[in-house]
Each structure stands twice: as C-alpha cells, then as structure tokens.
Amino acid sequence: MSNGKDSGSIIPISGIIALLAVIGFTLFPQIPLKGTRPYSAEIQHEPYDKVIARLWQDPFDAVLKHLELLKKCDSESTYLMDQTGTDQCGKEKNGEKDPQDSQSKLKNEIEKKINNNGEVTVLGVMVPGTEYAEDKENRMRQRYAVLSGLRSRQFLPEDSEHINFVFLTSANKQKNKQHLLTEIMPYEWFTHKSGNKKYVLLVWLNEKTFRNNPLSQLSCLITRLSIEAKNFKIIGPWESQTLKNMLSELKNDKINKEDNPIKKLKGLRIYSAFATADASGLIEEYTATGNGDAEIRKIFNYKDIIFSRIIGSDKALAEKIVKELGNRRVAFNDKENTIILVSESDSLYAGSLHDVFHHELSKQINKTAKTEKNKGANLVCISYLRGIDGFLPGEKESKADKNEDGNKQNNKSGFDLDKLAKPAGTSQYDYLRRQADDIYHNLQRRHRKVSAIGMLGSDFHDKYLVLQAFHQRFPQAIYFTTDLDAMWIHPANLQWTRNLLVASYFDLTAHNDLEDANQESIPSFRDSYQTSAFTAIRQAFPDKQQNDRQCIPKLFEIGNKRAVNLLEAKNTTNYGCTLRAIAVMAFLVLLILFYANSNVNQAVMWIFKCRKNFIIIIFTTAFVILLIYLFNIYIKPYFSNNPWEEHFSLFDGISVWPSNMLRILAFILSVCFLYFSDRSLENNRKEIENKFCFNTQEKEKHDKREKTKGKIIRYLKRAVSYNFLKEYKDTNIAELWYEYKTRNKWKYRIVWVAISFIIYFISCRFILEAFGFPSSPVRGDYSYRITYIILMAAIISFSWLFLYVFDLTRLCHQFIVNATENKPIWPPASIKECSYGIYENICHLPDNKQVQEKREKILEEQKIFLSEWMLVNIVAKRTKAVGKLIFYPLISWVVIYIARHSYFDDWNTTIGLTVIMTGSVAITWMCALMQRYDAENLRKASVSRLKEQQMRIIFSKELEDLKSQIELVIKEIQAIREGAFSPFFQHPVFRSVLLALSSVGGTYIMEYTNIFNF
Questions:
Q1: How far apart are CA 482 and CA 457, in angstroms?
Q2: What does the buried/exposed string (b/e) look like for 414-451 if buried means 16 or more CB atoms within 10 Å of the residue's CB?
Q3: What are phi and psi of 178, to 5 degrees?
Q4: Superfamily for domain range 315-393+410-565
Q5: Quick check: 550 and 622 in contact, CB under 8 A?
Q6: Are the C-beta atoms of residues 805 and 677 closer than 8 Å to each other?
Q7: Is the pLDDT of residue 321 over 90?
Q8: What's 97's DSSP letter?
C-alpha cells in the first residue's frame, strides 16, 4: 500500500546562492562612509593674502571665495578690530594693502630664502582654468596628485592650512571688481623634511592665461620672480592645443633677436604629463614615418629647453585598442560588420584622437580586406559637442532635478522618460538618442551588425552618456575608450561600464616598485592623469636610485570591483589556487549528487566493496592530480604570461575561466546523471519484477514472439517508431512490461536519441541564425578554442541527458497509454503474490461443486479489482523512478545558465539562445506533465472499471461481500500519492519549476553582490 509520501529531494540551489550572498554581505561589504565632523558655521578671517584651504581643495576656487568674502565685507563696511591690528576682513588698520604688492612680496620671499643659502625650485603646474564643474574637479585631483608626489620626495608644506596668491595684472587694484580665474596665481611653499634648506615654490598656472603665447608669458613670469629658468620646472601643459602653440612659438622664432623673451627660458624643464595628442596633430609638416616624440624634443632643444613627455601619444593607445579588437575576433574583413566612432569635436585633442583611431582602424580594415571590391568592415563616425548634459557654471539644481533624484529610489532606471524625450533646452540627450536609433534602424534594414563602438573625448560625463545611449541599442558590441577614471568602476555605473575596454598609459595606482623601502605607500588616485602628474613630480625631483621608466600603454577592462590590467603578465606557476578551485568544484559535484540521487551511498559502498574498485579509484585520483599539476606547470603559465590570452580570474568579472569551470561541472554532472539514471532505473526494474513476480514464463513468450519476424526489421521498428508495436496492445501486463523493458535498452535508445540529437542541433542552429549568434567575450585564439571545446562538451552532454530523460518519459507514457486502453491481464503468479491472503479467506468453505463454483466466481472477481490495484501501483512505482530524473537535466541546465551570467564576464543572452535554453526545459516539463496526465487517466479508467464491477455484482447475493472489498480498493487507488500520482506541490514538474526560478532569482542575487564587493 502507498504511504502517501514521495521521497527524494532536489538540490537547494537558491539556498546555496543566498548563503553565498549573505557571506558576501557580511564579510565583504562596501558600506557608505559616514563622517562625524561637525559643520563650521563661522568663517575665521585671515590676512588679505592668506587663504584658508585644505591641501585637497581647488586652489583657484579657494582664492575666489576668499576674494568674494572680502568684497562682501567692503560693501557692508563691517570692520571690527582684533588684537593684531587688522579688521575682520583681514585689511590693515592704517590703509588698505595694495593687491599688486603681493608680487613683490613673493619675489622678496624667494630672494630671502636664496640669500639664506637656500635652494629654491619653482614648480609650475598648468591646470584647466574654466569654471565648469569637471575642470574644478580636475584641479582638485591634480593638487592631490602633485602634493602626493612632493610628499614622496620628502617635501612638506610650510603651512598646511593656508594658500597664498598673487594677481597677474595691475587691473585688480580696482575696488569691488569681479575677479576672474585668469587673473590670479595661487602658490604655496614646501620645505624638505631633512632640513637641508631645499625649498619648492609650487605655483598654480591657469591654462587659459598661458594658452596663446605660453612660452613668452612663462618668460615674463620668470622675469617677475627674478629666478633663473634652470630653477623653473613646468608640469604641463594641460591641453594639447597649448603644447601645439608652444611648438609654433619655437618654430616661428628662428631669428635670434636680443629682446626675444624665449631666450630667457634656457634651461627650463617641461614635463608633459597631460597632453596626449599625436605629433601629426601638433606639427604641421610632421611625417608619420618619423618618431613624433623625438621631433618634439628636437624643436624644444633648439632653444635649450628640456622637454620630457611623461605620458605618450594617443597613437600607441589606438594601436593597442585595434589589436585587442582583433584579438577578440572583431571581423575587420567582413563587409556586414560595422565599427562606430563617437567622438568629441570641440578641441584639438578630440580631433587628433579621432583622426588617430580612424587611421588605425582604417589601416587594419584595408589590411584584412579580402578583395578590392570588398572593402571590409564599415567605419561610421559620429561627433558631439562637449557638455551633452547641458549643465552650465553657476546654475543651481532645479526643483525638477531634485524631484527626479528623489524618485530614483522608486525608479530603477534613474531617469524621466518624458523629460529625456523633449528635443529642447540645453541638453543634447535627444541628439544622442536619435543618432543611436538612426544607426540601429539603418543597419537593421541592411542586415548589418555592430561589433565595436569607441567613445573618444576628454570628459568622462559625456562618454558615460554616449555609453548609455548606444549600449541600449547595441548591447553585444565591444565598447572602448581612453583615459582610466575611477568613475568607470563606481558601483552605481557598473550597469553600463562593465567590461568596457580602456586604453591608458597609467593605472590609478603607481607601481610599488617605484617606491623606496622607507617611504609610505603610493596613494590610489581618481584618474590616470593624476598618476601621470605624480610620476612627473618624481622625475622632476629624482633621487639617486630613480630611473626613468618608459611609458608603455596599458589596456584595462572594467570588472566587478576594479579595472583589470589585461596586458599585465602574471609570472607564477603556483597551483594552489587551481587546487582550491578543483576542490570547490569536487565539493559542489558531491553536494549536488548527494541531494540529487540516493544511489550515491551505493556508489560509495561500491568503492569499498573490493580491493580492485578501491585501487581503480586511487589510480584515477592520482591521474587527476597529475593532470592538475601538468596544467599548472605547462598550460596555466602560458595563459598567465601571455598578455593577449584570457586571464585566470575568478571574481573580477573579466574572465571566462569561471564559466568554463562551471561548464566542466555541468559536463561532469551530466555524465554522472546518465550513469545514476541508468542504475536507478535498473534497480527500480528489478524491484518491480520481484514485487509483482514476473516469472520467466512471460519472458519466454515475449522472446518467442521476437523470433516471428526478422531481427533487423523488428530492431528498426523499435528504434524508430514512437509507439509500441501494435501486437502488444492487447496482451497481458507482463508481456507489455517486457516490451517496455526491451525498448529501454541502449541498443534501441541510441538510435532514437541520436536522430533526436541531430534534429535538435539543426533546429538550434536554425534558431540562432534567425535571431543572431550570441557574442563571446573570450580573448585570444587558444583561449577561444579551449572555451569552445568545453562549451560543446557541456552542451552535448546536457543534450544527451535531456533527450535521454525525454525518451524515458516517452516510453513510460506509451506503457501507461497501452495499459489504460484495455482491462489489465496479470499472470497468476503476480495475482497470488499481491493477493494479501485472499485465498486463505475463503478456504474454510465446504468443498463441494456449488461452493467450488462460488469460490471460482469470487476469485475471478477478486482478480479483476486486484489487477486494477496492481496496475495503478506498478505505474506509481515506475513513474516515481522516472519522475525523479526530470531534475537531472534541470540541474545541469541551471549550472550552464549560471555559467553565462554577466557576473563572470560579458556574457549576453540573445533571443535565440533564450528560446533554445527555455525550450529544452519546457519539453522536459511537458513530458512530465504528460506523464502525470496519463497516470491520472489510468487512475480514472481503473476506478471507472471498478465501479462498473461494483454495479454488476451489487444484485448478486453470492458476491455481495465483495462490495466492501471493491470500495476499499477504490479508496486505496484514489489515495495513492506516489510517483506521477503525487500532489502537484510535490510533483517533479512543480519542484523543477521552483528549481529553475530559484536559479534565475539566484543570479539576480549575484548581481547585487557586485555592489557589496563579494
């Protein structure tokens, strides 16, 4: 009798993922920092040329705020005397101080330190001088970087709380005048920590002030400060246009004039840490065959000016990007392929950057073009004006913007569609959106695809908007840009910036091998230009051990938590990490098998059953360990030391190896599930045959029927046909069972599964071609081949497992259908074995002819309802074993699904791939639902036949005792809750749906773990 329970469990995928997420939330959180410093309500006023400023503040902004405060004090005439003889605004009691006198004061400070046997070096840092928010941020960043560089050379500020300034023009003597950034020059003093009277005067130079005639104006500044040019060092210029103007000044000044101010710059040192335009955009007559940096140095050396280019040109960055695109199999020779360049058009730097990338891409396209007619990939260029968001200096945040920010918590998209759609106002959102839409629809009509999109510009905020606009239309494209910025890896931006390629000369952190053993750690910066300025300071003030290092372009990919240097080789053969990964994989396999199959215990017992099995396991384990060792010694170092192959990284989100490990796990699970399924069904078959006492007599009848026709014909009919052969429809249950058993043999199944496998793969190919193949983020040819082999192994093993389970459910369905159509006929031995003492219940009757006839009638009627009960039970026991197998392809499917998650790499799921993955699972669910439907029909048919029997004997006094027995059998049949008769919430279909949903939900949990740095 049935106990009403369906044993077995499914693997708790959602529980495991939730546990990992909790571990990530607990151990690796990125909780927002909350300061405890109180706000200062009052401003303490200082002397006129003393400006309160932290070391990280923008020096120009601090001076402007100081001057605005002085202007406010003048207008309100609120002079309060303090103990030092100055008023509240810092002006002297006996007359106002002339602002122009500050230049003389600075000159006197320099002369005083020099006369005191001091060594003074003037360090001028050129920074952007506009009032835009991005330039203000750049000034703050550069001050942080420059001061960090000076600190690394043991130069400390004399006054860490204040900054001084001077006016560059005499027009500032006017009272209540609106001061401009171009009119002031902040400065600050630094002293060497050793006390050897080495001083650095750090002056902040506004790029706008020195843009037109930069060298001439620098010469005038040196004259005002009365310092030799050899003691003056420049970190700059900031813009490539200023560098071009410097070169123009030098080339136009070939006539040696006595009053030429540039002659006074002999010995001046310029460290170009920001201008990256190629020499072709800086020198008009420059030929691409020459060395651009050498040509630039030659022009400066003509006037004895020492020029050092700390940061390289954009040409080398473009070459790295183009090579990486080819390494990622971007089809430059495919005329159906399109590459888009979206570039800023405001400045010389932006134009030069666009020209360099356009030239390198065109050269690669022409190089790989197959014929002259086929020009290769299409190159589409789009331009925009800087400041796409339309924000202007001095504008305050509107109420609409505040409401929009307040609604971001309820609106995950973070923007207002109505506002974005309006083609009016200062913002250029609509231009950008329409450009992306027009290209998308135009390429769609011409059946072309976009493989790569470049964002070229000087402003992060603009490039981020371009990335959003085009990523929505072309999610499978490879996106690339220049200049590494910490904003690319901010958790709030990773939705768009993940797997972005960034070419840059510097990382956000300088290498520790540049540091001396006794010095503090190098800080981590916000962008690569800070690192460039930091490096320039260290070269401007070299120590004895300092060696100039060649600036080599780097290539980064934005990961889950950091920007990973793709071209950095990892010289290691340590196999401990891989051993740990293999151990984790083995643990997952055992865990899944433990929850998925009860035969694991039998497998463990099989290992220790005899010495031979134990030796086999020992040698297999040793062989696997040897493979792991050889992998780490010979294979892994090749990929680790080859910068153009895929990196080994588990949690950075830029490597396919975690996905490959999961696919290997899926392959192992599929093979194990095939084995355990076969063993489980064989054990179930033996159990059923023993329980229902199928003897050899029925088997002999089945074998005799097999010999009536040719073996080949019967083999082909069994292998190809979907239904059972017609001659088995009206036979007894035993013969039907043996036919079902025969069809479950691999020699018959292999043909049907192979044919289904071919049809399945052809269908998948057709679907992928119709909707587009998903892109692969693999780098390098060897990595791609290995990934392809692993992927095919996982897919083929999963497909065989899926089709195997489908074939099992198909045969079980046909067995149930054939058994339902007619009254079940059981062998006498089976009836006797399952009668539960019915014969003993009637043996006490007298032995005469009348009683014998009655006994035979009773036994005949009892045989009928026992047959129905036995039929339902055999279906319940068989479907219990077959129904559990539906979880096996679901578990492998979940592992393969998780392997394609974007947490590991830039995997994307197209519509065609979604149809294939969900279609396979849907077919399995349909088979299970069909099995349940067939089982319920069988139960209804059995109950209907029993009720007919009950109605037939209800008027027979001789058989009236059987009415209660039939009623009991009907209740027993209706109470069976095993196999396909189990309640819906315990049914394999329902559980498998929960498993699939838990895996999908688990992947969303993985998305949130990115934010928590897990």
A1: 8
A2: eebeeeeeeeeeebbbeebbebbeebeeebeeeebbbb
A3: -75, 115
A4: Response regulator (3.40.50.2300)
A5: no
A6: yes
A7: yes
A8: P
**Residue from 496, 550, 501, 504 nearest 525 by CA:** 504
CB 995 within 8 A of CB 888: no
| Contact residues for 244 (Cβ-Cβ < 8 A; gap 6+) | 277, 281, 282, 348
The pairing of strands 337-344 and 378-384 is parallel
CA nearest to 67, candidates 99, 95, 103, 105: 99
Q: What is the pLDDT of residues 768-780, one digit of tens each?
A: 777 777 778 888 8
Rounded CA-CA distance 945/940 in Å is 9
In terms of average pLDDT, the best of 9-18, 406-415, 612-621 is: 612-621
Question: Residue 664 and residue 658: Cα distance in Å, rounded?
Answer: 10
Place of tokens 């050897």: 196
Per domain, the residue ranges of the chain are 51-312, 315-393+410-565, 576-641, 657-1011
In degrees to the nearest 10, what's the CA dihedral of 74, 180, 111, 96?
Answer: -10
- Most confident range (mean pLDDT) of 406-415, 474-483, 627-636 is 474-483
What is the widest separation between alpha-carbon atoms in the chain?
Answer: 150
Burial class (CB in 10 A: 0-12, 13-18, 19+), 705: middle
Q: Which residues contact 526 (CB under 8 A, 6 or more apart)?
A: 141, 485, 486, 487, 508
Find the helix or strand (DSSP H, E) in which 188 lies: strand 184-192
Q: Cα(806)–Cα(889) distance, rounded to whole angstroms? A: 10
Distances (CA, A) of 669 to 543, 756, 788: 60, 21, 19
Count how many Cα atoms sit within 13 Å of the Cα of residue 56 in the half-sphere of its side chain: 3
- 311 closest CA partner among 269, 350, 272: 272
DSSP designation for 368:
H
Question: What letter would DSSP give residue 263?
Answer: G
What pLDDT does residue 891 have? 81
- How far, CA to CA in Å, does 287 sit from each of 175, 315, 319, 353, 856? 53, 14, 18, 17, 113
Contact yes or no for 1005/21 (Cβ under 8 A): yes
Nearest to 390 by CA among 356, 354, 370, 419: 419
Q: If we measure between CA atoms, which residue out of 559, 566, 447 comes closest to residue 504? A: 566
Alpha carbon distance 629, 633 (integer Å): 6
In angstroms and rounded to an integer, the radius of gyration of the C-alpha atoms of the chain is 41
- Cα angle, residue 691 at apex, residues 687 and 693 outer, rounded to 5°: 115
Q: Residue type at 609?
A: K
Distance CA(343)–CA(357), nearest Å, equals 10
Q: How confident is the model at residue 329 (pLDDT cuts 50, 70, 90)?
A: confident
Is the pLDDT reported for residue 502 higher than 60? Answer: yes
Return d(Cα 906, Cα 776) in angstroms, integer: 8
DSSP 8-state symbol, 725:
P
More confident residue, 158 or 86: 158
Query: In this structure, are residues 888 and 832 in contact, taking their beta carbons and an 8 Å threshold?
Result: no
pLDDT at 536: 93
The pLDDT value given to residue 414: 47
The tokens for 964 are: 């209660």
